[in-house]
Amino acid sequence: MPPRIRLPVSDMDLKILQDSGLTDRTILENDLYTKFNALVFPYRDIDGTVNCFARLRPHDPPIINGKPAKYIQPPDSPLRAYFPAASLEKLRDGKSDVFITEGEKKAMALAQLGVAAIGLGGIWCGLKDGTLIDDLQKISWKGRTVFICFDYDPKTATRCQAAIARGQLATELRKQGAKVFGIDLPEGPRKTKQGVDDFLQAHRENGSEEFWKLVAAAQTARRGKKKKEKDEETKATKLVRYAQEELELWHTPDLVGYASTFSSPRHSWPLRSTHCHQFLSRLFYMREKESVSADTRTTAIATLEGLALYDGPEHPVFVRLAEWEGKIYLYLGDAARRVVEVGPDGWKIIDNCPVKFRHPRGMLPLSEPVRGGSVEKLKPLVNVSDRDWILIIAFLLCALRPGGPFFVLLVYGQQGAAKSMLARLLRLLLDPNEALLRSEPKEPRDLSIAANNGWILTFDNLSFLPPWLSDCICRLATGGGFSTRLLHTDDDERIFNAKRPVILNAIEEVGTRGDLLDRSLVVNLSAIEKKKRLTEDKVKAKFAAIAPEVLGGLLDAVSVGLKNLPNVNLTELPRMADCATWVTACEPALGWEPESFVRAYEENTDSANDVALDASNLTAPLRDFMKVRQGNWKGTPTELLSLLTPIVSEQVARSREWPKNAQVLSGRLSRITPNLKRVGILVESGHDGTSRFISIRTEGENCVKSVSDVNPPENKAKNDGDCVSESVSESVSGSRFKPDLGGCVRGRP
User: Fold this and answer.
1) All residues at 6 or more sequence positions from 528 whose CB lies less than 8 Å from its CB, including other chains
2) What contacts 599, CB < 8 A, 6 or more positions away?
3) Would you say residue 316 has pLDDT above 80?
4) Pairing status of strand 692-698 against strand 632-635
5) For 370-424, what is each residue's pLDDT tens digit?
6) d(C-alpha 391, C-alpha 607), whole Å
7) CA 122 to CA 134: how far, in whole Å?
8) Residue 745 has pLDDT above 70, yes or no
9) Which of 358, 473, 651, 674 is the most buried (most CB within 10 A)?
């Protein structure tokens, strides 16, 4: 018996290789050897040249990222594919079937079966940046049959990852022209992990036969999947054809695909909406008496969306209210999908509307308006004064003008003042919804979605209005967009550009920022006496009885407003001039005296202005400061902050609300500048070429023009000195103002 050839591997490594079913010949022809206390796998290029790259299987695996590393390779080395020596010729011939597996041992085990095998360093190692690694790109794949045989792992999550990796690799190979099949290995003995080498060893007597059964099963499964995909494709094509027969396809200016039913009543849905999916499912069943899968619907909708965007007409889509060619359209939202058309000559209910309306989930139908109604029917149900009643009706009239801008209605009152009931009734009148009152949104995206799916936004029982929400409500009232990234995309953006009427109710005055108050109507409710209280059911019943008349009265006023609007010329335009002009145009239909709303609005604005000034901790120290400065001062923001800070109490100066730097001071001052102007404090800011400056002066009866206005005549002699008088110091008693704070009054700018 000839002596056994001495192999260049250690006994330990030899056992590992033999357990994988590798023969001595395979070990020798692939140049395997033991060195550095590790089993070394040298790599070859596709032409057979041994390159300098190798992977090692260490006897004592190092710990990397908290786990023992079974294999190691040179750091920062590129991803490589392992080509067994016996497979090289078949890999180069361009026609042999190719088997891709995990690891070198498994690839050599497959090569012993006489097939072209390739080993990857792991399930994800065949691709880099979504494309085939360099070694795989050197192989001609066109027309080839490829089998991917990754390990079976008992862990479900690992199997899912392997399926994903196999699918991605198969996709890239198919792009190169290959026919790709996936071989699913069974679980090992006792439900253990199993690779192709383990499978062949477990079936040593007829291993190749059992393996070819798996190959045949993979091909059969693929044919079945292709047939199923073809059947699904046929169903999708049918569904597209059926949908074109039943639906009008169109798109919005912001390129959202829509479908409208041809049959009456007409429904309009976004193609990606649940409503559209449900309609298509029903449509297919009615035609074929067969259900349709979600994948088929998704495929059909993708096609319909393309047809809507590129072949369909463009229409704007509206929620509840629209303006078109000089007329206003109010969507009733009933089962018949009727609409009220309002023009300068009156209003009527129509069935065929020239504009497209959406019917979002949660929208409820309006009361059907009647002619000859009156808004005064609503007054006994709301707990407001005569002046505030005018403001309430003004809010509703502006809410019926689609283009806006709109008022923000701030409803304040103590407990038991029926704040929530007022907000509920106003929304029931113009925009009923399953969720009439909402809590404050958590982020701008929530607010934009609510605005996209409703007309009037009502936020109930607020205890605090965050600055971001106050700014967003300002944008909603007078116009402004919200943007967000579309789900499952990297750079597609969805723009929400809407104007909406907003109602806020609270016990405390939560709307204190000047820009919000400029857009607001503030209504204060008093507590209802016990003998005048009604149950909620009685209020709802009374409202249901009068709602048609109240809505009819509002529509009469809107019609008159459309007729009178071109002829309205107010003497002085207040803030929110468009709203004031519109309400004034509607007044004749309400029986009000001319410009009743303007007078009530001016009183309301004065009260709101006081609220904005009281809410700012800059107002009081700024007034005291201007008394000392004789009504005129100019300097840098930094100087102003250094002069104002000592005036306030130590507690205020240390609080989070007090500005800590000049930039914050400038921003806070800019926000209340319009409010200060109304009380005679004029603030201007600018740049003189060298530095920023702030100029402040006082005028009018509401402000002290000089120090002498504060001090009695007998103290005039004291004030003739260079330093601030004691009487001025007394005028800011309780503060930390010191006479030597800014130097002398005289000679200062």
Assistant:
1) 383, 416, 417, 418
2) none
3) yes
4) antiparallel
5) 999 999 999 999 988 888 999 999 999 999 999 889 999 999 988 888 889 999 9
6) 14
7) 16
8) no
9) 473
At a CB cut-off of 8 Å and minimum separation 6, what does 261 contact?
Answer: 246, 247, 248, 267, 268, 279
**Residue 721 pLDDT grade (very low, low, confident, very high; cuts 50, 70, 90):** very low
**Cβ contact 56:37 at 8 Å:** no
Q: What is the pLDDT of residue 187?
A: 85
Residues with Cβ < 8 Å from 304, sequence gap 6 or more?
Answer: 240, 243, 244, 247, 249, 257, 259, 271
Rg (CA), the chain: 40
Q: 391 near 459, Cβ under 8 Å?
A: no
Using left for φ > 0, alpha for ψ between -120 and 50, and beta otherwise, residue 568 falls in beta
Distance between CA atoms of residues 338 and 707, nearest Å: 68
Burial readout 467-477 (b: 16 or more C-beta within 10 A, e: otherwise): eebbebbbbbb
Residues 149-162, mean pLDDT to the nearest whole number: 86
Helix, strand or coil, per DSSP, at residue 676: helix
How far is Cα 595 from Cα 574, in angstroms, rounded to an integer?
12
Contacts of 462 (CB under 8 A, 6+ apart): 440, 504, 505, 506, 510
Give residue 170's Cα distance to chain centre: 35
H-run or E-run covering 117: strand 116-120
Tokens of 16: 């590992």
**Using CA atoms, how far apart are residues 591 and 375, in angstroms rounded to an integer?**
11
Instruction: Read off φ and ψ for residue 665, nearest 5 degrees.
Output: -60, -45
Q: Which two tokens stand for residue 389?
A: 């009643």
The CA–CA distances, whole Å, from 505 to 73, 287, 408, 409, 673 equal 67, 52, 11, 8, 26
The pLDDT-based confidence of 230 (bands split at 50, 70, 90) is low
- Rounded-to-integer distance, Cα 48 and Cα 393, Å: 89
The token pair that represents 509 in the structure block: 């005055």
Q: Dihedral of CA 122/128/134/138: which sign?
A: positive
Q: Which two tokens stand for residue 39?
A: 């089993």
Helix runs in 81-143, H state only: 88-92, 104-111, 134-137
Task: Give the residue-averaged pLDDT of 681-696.
Answer: 85
Average pLDDT, the chain: 85
Residue pair 524/422 in contact (Cβ under 8 Å)? The answer is no
